Amino acid sequence: MLLGKRVLVTRPAHQTEQFINHLRTLGADPVLFPTTRIVPDSDQLIRFRRELEQLDPYQWIIFTSQNTVHLFWEEFQKSECSIDYLKNVKIAAIGPATRQALNECGIAVDVMPEKFIGEEIVSTLGNIEGNLILLPRAESAREELLKALLQNKAVVHEFPLYKSVTNSPDSQAWKELETGVDFVTFTSASTVHGFFDLLGDRAKTYLSQTIIACIGPITANALEPYGMTAQIVAETYTTKGLVESILSFAGNHNRKVH
């Protein structure tokens, strides 16, 4: 159990519900301090909607996050397409949360890689030489997936639908932060960058007084330029895996933070 442990949640506010509910069932006290927020690109969304109305040439659509699914579905519903329009295109999802978001829209997923990293999906797609692939994603997304698709001679139409920007937490969030926490969680590189943007020179001091927990190695690597290292890196790259890793760490360590 994590009874009484204060856990800082830095992911965007609209993505926290399942995460904080899981923490609460274990007795933890989630502290919400969203360091980033999602800003859709209206021009790209208009272009993307037009593309959705001519999906026939596409063999695949690859979804890399819940955010891309939600924006896709909003634009799809604005178009004149029905769900049957997706029957002739295969759907790939990175991670169970992305798959769940698609399923909630009534969209079945054909492929999901065992490791929830973008470039890992290429090996599960089979021979994609000459395949036309639709790739909605974040403006600042890692290039590894795109490079891997192109190396396998796919034709990729990329649409950066949104960007992640530093958030402005409210006064209550700052007050909770100043009270102190036992664990700080990061679920993406952008949440790391947002934390350092917000706290500036104080960020390293704050983190040195707590336990840093990251959803996976890519997020953990984002700490390195700031001279910090995560004590916990989830082996399963989901919020559930992150909570389980924190629980395991807490069970093996009796260290009192702050």
List the helices and strands and how they pair.
Blueprint: E1 6-9, H1 17-25, E2 29-32, E3 36-40, H2 42-52, E4 60-63, H3 66-78, E5 90-93, H4 96-104, E6 132-138, H5 144-151, E7 155-166, H6 171-179, E8 183-186, H7 189-199, H8 202-208, E9 211-214, H9 217-221, E10 232-233, H10 239-252
Parallel strand pairs: 1-2, 1-8, 4-5, 4-6, 6-7, 8-9, 9-10
Antiparallel strand pairs: 3-7
Task: Report on the architecture of this protein.
- The structure is a single chain.
- This protein has 258 residues and is of the alpha/beta class.
- The chain has two domains: 6-35 and 167-252, Rossmann fold (3-Layer(aba) Sandwich); 39-164, Rossmann fold (3-Layer(aba) Sandwich), CATH 3.40.50.
- The chain is 37% helix and 19% strand.
- It has helices at residues 17-25, 42-52, 66-78, 96-104, 144-151, 171-179, 189-199, 202-208, 217-221, 239-252, and strands at residues 6-9, 29-32, 36-40, 60-63, 90-93, 132-138, 155-166, 183-186, 211-214, 232-233.
- The strands form two sheets. Strands 2-1-8-9-10 form a five-stranded parallel β-sheet, sandwiched between helices.
- Helix 2 packs across helix 3.
- The longest helix has 14 residues, at 239-252.
- The radius of gyration is 19 Å and the shape is elongated.
- The mean pLDDT is 92.
